[in-house]
Amino acid sequence: MITAFRAYQDKNSIYKQKAGHAQWLLSGILQLILALVPVIIWAQSSGKSEPAALMTVNLKVNERSSLAGMAVGARLPRFSWEVKTNQPAGTVNHGSARVSAYQILVGQLSDLKSVMGQTNKKKVGKWLNSNEDLYWNSFKQTKGDLFHTIYNGKKQLQSDRIYYWMVRVWDEKGRPGKWSQVDSFQTALFERKDFAGARWIGRNQMLPEERILPGDTAVIVTSSDGKKKKLPFGSVGDTLPLFRKSFDLFGKASQIQRATLYVSGLGQLEARLNGQKIGDHFLDPGWTNYQKVALYVALDVTKLIKDSENVLGVELGNGFYYIPGSKDWYKKLLVQYGFPKMICRLSIHYKDGRSQNVVSNTSWQSGVSATWFSSIYGGELENGTKQATGWDKPGFDPAKKGWKAAITVIDTPTGLTLQKTDPIKVMEKFSAKAIYPVNPANGQGEATDNWLYDMGQNCSGIPYMELSGKRGIRLHYCLQSL
Q1: Do 302 and 256 touch, CB atoms closer than 8 A?
Q2: pTM exceeds cut of 0.85
Q3: Are 108 and 165 in contact, with CB atoms under 8 Å apart?
Q4: Exposed site from 71, 124, 165, 431, fewest CB < 10 Å?
């Protein structure tokens, strides 16, 4: 019995030892699981709440940054952006994350800022789905080009307006990135009626039978002596006009939110406001088939407008629109679509919602510039003694200076569209590297009236000279690449 009891006791001890080992093993596993669970839960929740390491930058509309200050001339502009990672260098996937979707918002500045400032995702999502003030909510787009898209909003963009937009993207794991900074773009004038009643005006009207279009040639006749000759072809008279318009504001200049001048001048124009040149463009607008279309440009004039009286001025050049038929000047080609003319709308928007337009019509005054002859290839003749000093400023009396009312002209292009190319500008200034006398009178190095200025390189530019001398002296200069 004792042996049997001991055997049972020993056996029971074995069971207790096995049970103890099992409990210890189970306890260890449970402790391990409990230790791992927070890590697993943390890792999963971190993955869901952590935003994508992507940022949208370099926002552009029609391939132009808003900093370029160029207006948009299409109702369906093209939006584009670049994406970069905000992960520090050296981390996993630095610079290698891929875009899986995007979303664009176009609307008012206040609406977009409220989206950026909202941290509750459910509220933002509900607001975006129900908001009717947005011009466009693309929602999450996963197909097509994920870096470019064309406007597809339910609301049609209006001319002469400022719109705001922003974009965000999702990475390959479906995680949304932060919204971009809010950017903006200004629409130009989409249709001819958007010029608000502006008319093409000029100083003279060319008759239809006087026009010389591409492909026209002079009529050749045979005289009584059997010789062939060309009949007179093309007009020689060349009047380059100046136009001015005086106007007062509806309010104070400080109340203006923005002011934009939409203007076209054929062949070329230079616009001025209160004595200052508007913008830094040169030789606007670009050359086109003037029978079909002319280009206009949009220029910001907000900072040039003053209280009380303002004066808007436009000076025109011939360009390729009118080339004088003079035999004394080099032409290269001869076309005469009409005499120089212009059309414009100055659009002023006030902070209180009011707007004001100054448009070209017969209320404008027209004078003659000091440039008496101008040919795109042949050069210019300018009489400095005939400068109309102050013509583009308040206080000038056009009636006393012989100015007359502008006329409405009818020989105009059928189309009018925004110039989309980058403008010509003065990019660099050069000084002469050397100056040489040309053809000395007797070969002995005596004084000469002719000088050659070596600019050091071939370039396309305009000479700038400061002269002193008696009133009425004549100066001749020629630009030539050697």
Answers
A1: yes
A2: no
A3: no
A4: 431
